[in-house]
Design a protein that fits this description.
The chain is an alpha+beta fold and 209 residues long. It has five helices and seven strands, in the order ααβαββαββαββ. It has one domain (4-207). The protein is elongated and about 45 Å long.
């Protein structure tokens, strides 16, 4: 399990990377909107796109959600900005994170926003050959608990080496708004050799020290 210091360090690192910054200028929300854009992009042949689709659960019960500091992102900042005077929305804020009381509808909307960020950001990673020259494909399962990243070589760039940390963080953020508590979050990232199909590296978010 990542300790607090390490998690904060990952968050600072991620702020300088592509992931979770790709939603600026988007007018559509939800993973279906991103999926439509991915289909058009693939049809144009302009860049590779994420494989698989993220499924957002509906009809979630109202509940208190503790968002750890290392999982705070643009969606949470927007939530605070839109509801600055609602004391029941942000019930508690401390060193370990902020607790929100969210309805089922609000959780679904937050999950849609995170899913869109993930899909859009992964597509940017796939298209960015300066920082990710060896990434040939990225797939994700519907629950966003497992990512498969395919490489043309095992000699990775700096950004490619730290990509699993970012994927673990965004996977955790999505799972958080889909009914899981902090202690239940787990994301696995498999690094796959494109030539042999062999998994040569596995990162489990619960094993990061």
């Amino acid at each position: 399990m990542m300790n607090k210091k390490k998690k904060i360090a990952f968050t600072l690192l991620m702020s300088g990377m592509i992931l979770c910054t790709a939603c600026a200028g988007k007018t559509e929300t939800g993973s279906n909107a991103a999926k439509d854009g991915n289909t058009q992009q693939a049809a144009d042949g302009t860049a590779p796109v994420m494989e698989g689709s993220i499924e957002v659960a509906e009809n979630l019960p109202d509940r208190d959600i503790k968002v750890p500091e290392y999982l705070m992102g643009e969606t949470e900042e927007k939530l605070n900005h839109e509801n600055p005077d609602e004391e029941d929305l942000s019930q508690e804020k401390g060193d370990e994170g902020t607790v929100y009381h969210l309805s089922g509808e609000e959780q679904t909307e937050m999950a849609h926003q995170v899913a869109l960020q993930i899909e859009d950001s992964i597509n940017q990673v796939l298209a960015d050959k300066d920082f990710y020259p060896n990434v040939t494909g990225i797939s994700v399962n519907p629950e966003c608990t497992e990512f498969n990243v395919t490489f043309s070589t095992r000699e990775l760039s700096l950004y490619e080496s730290v990509l699993p940390m970012s994927l673990c963080i965004v996977g955790g953020r999505f799972q958080l708004y889909q009914g899981k508590q902090e202690e239940e979050l787990m994301t696995v990232v498999n690094y796959i050799d494109a030539d042999s199909g062999e998994i040569f590296k596995v990162i489990n978010s619960n094993e990061i020290e």
